Amino acid sequence: MRLQIIGPPGAGKGTQAVRLAERLGVPHLATGNLLRAAIAEGTELGLQAREFVERGDLVPDDLMIAFIAQRIDRPDCNGFVLDGFPRTVVQAKALDDMLEEAGRPLVAAIHLDVPEGELLRRLTGRRTCPTCHRSYHLESSPPDVDEVCDDDGSRLEIRADDEPDTVKHRLVVYRAETSELIGYYEDAGLLVHVLGVGSVDEVHERMWAAIEDRL
Ligand code: AP5
Fold first, then answer.
1. Which of 24, 37, 131, 146 has the fewest beta carbons under 10 Å from its own?
2. pLDDT value at position 75?
3. Active-site residue 93, yes or no?
């Protein structure tokens, strides 16, 4: 099962991708998490990506394509849930080429649709675990103990790019550079629309029902 999730910042891609990947028994590949880890570790990729991520701009296509190509090539990637890649048509075409060459095409691209007011509410209340990357929300999914990750006890953080002006900029970048992927995958017959409002469980079940016949 090879899936990818498209949606604006705060749509719940990460939250839902973790659940889908667990249920399917495949890796969850989240380029945002991988980039933040690379930045924290000070790797070559992290150094090159840092200013783009902190500004809320996209990291250049060539860097992202090379990065995901070596990850997808690993033996555990017969199936996967991709979260945050591709983000441009150039990246989507490169992914198609990689998967075609490996004889493992995408099965579906899930578009997670959430109104903009709800996105802002979600991102301004988000807290994330720097260790396991789990996302919490101060109102809708708080941790058991204030500001502490339920899974590994790390102190929760506010992401650098969740500052309100950067969030607005990320939404502009999404509309300008990523939303055209919806048409790209529709033309390819791979697009599945899922409404991303309601509880996390409701959205998960809606998503599962939408892809079940492709499993
Ligand atoms: P990335 O980390 O991918 O950020 P994003 O796409 O902006 O998405 P978010 O992580 O902000 O949101 P999400 O949709 O995952 O929502 P979440 O589940 O956390 O990328 C960050 C940066 O890296 C980019 O800006 C770019 O610079 C760079 N980058 C990454 N990939 C790249 C690429 N391919 N090319 C170039 N650059 C790239 O949920 C959000 C909040 O809502 C949480 O608090 C959560 O608890 C809450 N929530 C979730 N579901 C619900 C629900 N149903 N009801 C209520 N609350 C909910």
1. 146
2. 86
3. no
Residue 13 falls in the annotated catalytic set: yes
User: For 19-29, what is each residue's pLDDT tens digit?
Assistant: 999 999 999 99
pLDDT score for 215: 82
- The token duo for 112 is 């997670």
133-151 confidence digits (pLDDT tens): 899 999 989 999 999 999 9
Identify whether 159 is a catalytic site residue: yes
Residue 100 tokens read as: 């075609």
Cβ–ligand 1 contact at 174 (below 6 Å): no
